[in-house]
Amino acid sequence: MGDVLGEEGLDALIVTDLVNVRYLCGFIGSNGVLVVTSSGRVLLTDSRYTAAARTQVHDTEVVIAGRDLMDRLAEVVPGGRVGIEAEHMTVARRDRMAARLSGVELVATAGLVEGLRVVKEPGELDLIRDATRIADAALSRLIDEGFRGRTEAEVAWDLEGWMRASGAEGASFDIIVAGGAHGARPHAVPRDEGIPPDTLVVVDMGARHAGYASDCTRTVATGTLPAALEEAYSVCLEAQRAALAACRAGVHTKDLDSVARGIIADAGLGEYFGHGLGHGVGLDIHERPWLRQEGGEVLQTGMVVTIEPGIYLEGVGGVRIEDLAIVTDDGCEVLTGVSTDLTTTSI
Ligand code: ZN
Ligand code: ZN
Q1: DSSP for residue 45
Q2: Nearest ligand, CA of residue 286?
Q3: Distance from the CA of 27 to the CA of which of 47, 216, 228, 262 falls in 20 to 30 A?
Q4: C-alpha to C-alpha distance for 291 and 94, rounded to whole angstroms
Q5: Model confidence at 189, in pLDDT bands (50, 70, 90)?
Q6: Ligand 1: distance of its center to the CA of 208 in Å?
Q7: The overall pTM is greater than 0.85
């Protein structure tokens, strides 16, 4: 972090995003501000977290402030140029901060801590592996047992319950279970409706474990598929496998997206793949790097990304196939252990 301050010409950085605070010092709570300088770090929190901070926080001085942490901010912020996280700060909070830090030049910054988070440490990779195993077990149970007459919402709730029973802190995002035409909505919300026969069901889920997320989508059949969905599945799978085969350090995210997008376009289905190929996963379920046509970056060893092309046929159904993978020097390590072959599950 000291290097980043130097590169940015900052005397300090005030970290207000709680995920970034957790990443840097270990604090888990709803009220914390971390001040980072070249000589050290100070965490401001309130008395509800005195005991928790003592056990969680490492290499950081802890100051217990009142509920409004800003009251003690001036004591721990040095003068000079001080960065704030512009993407994680309301205008009102910035103004309150400025009012208490007279003589300090507040500088808007973006993505400084996120830039440190993008390549994972070995310990972080282990936690993501564990989160993936927990989700895999729940998904495998669903595929083996079948939907058993449950509604989409009941299936989503059972998946979350099974993951919690296996040690997850919860689901890493709101689980998607979407059958038939509902599956044509990439971010469908599970309904109080049963799973229809002879169609596809999109199940997108992940576990949160020790703060770290996993992310996986499988699309299963519930009988004999209409030709359009059978074709969509096989094209999507071909695109997903080709992108996994092309995923390695040194490849630009845009080019990786193009691998999958080209296969889907060549099959005449390009207009039905509207989202990016994937995203990074870590403490946040969606974080850098972004695998899509816009912007992007070169993949590096130790990044964790999803590869998740989808094809969505309005009024008919949808398919998305998503694996989580660690980028390596000469390829990638696929973490998701559930087969991507088309599987028929009973309703
Ligand atoms: Zn997902
Ligand atoms: Zn995803």
Answers
A1: E
A2: 2
A3: 216
A4: 32
A5: very high
A6: 13
A7: yes
Q: How many CA atoms lie within 13 A of 50 on its CB side?
A: 6
pLDDT, tens digit, for every residue of 261-279?
A: 999 999 999 999 999 999 9
Q: In angstroms, what is the span from residue 322 Cα to ligand 1's centroid?
A: 6
Q: Which amino acid is at 229?
A: L
Ligand 2 centroid distance, CA of 280 (Å):
8
Average pLDDT of 81-110?
94
Question: What does 239-305 look like in DSSP terms, one character per residue?
Answer: HHHHHHHH--TT-BHHHHHHHHHHHHHHTT-GGG--S-SEEE-SSSSSEEEEESSSS--B--TT-EE
What pLDDT is recorded for position 69?
87
Domains of the chain: 2-117 (3.40.350.10), 122-334 (3.90.230.10)
Ligand 2 center to residue 85 CA distance, Å? 25
Ligand 2 centroid to residue 322 C-alpha, Å: 7
Rounded to the nearest whole angstrom, what is the distance from the C-alpha of residue 30 to the centroid of ligand 1?
26
Mean pLDDT of the chain: 96
Per-residue pLDDT, averaged over 4-13, amounts to: 94
Give the distance (Å) from ligand 2 centre to CA of residue 74.
Answer: 40
11 CB neighbour count, 10 Å cutoff: 17
Count Cα neighbours of 324 within 13 Å in the Cβ-side half-sphere. 30
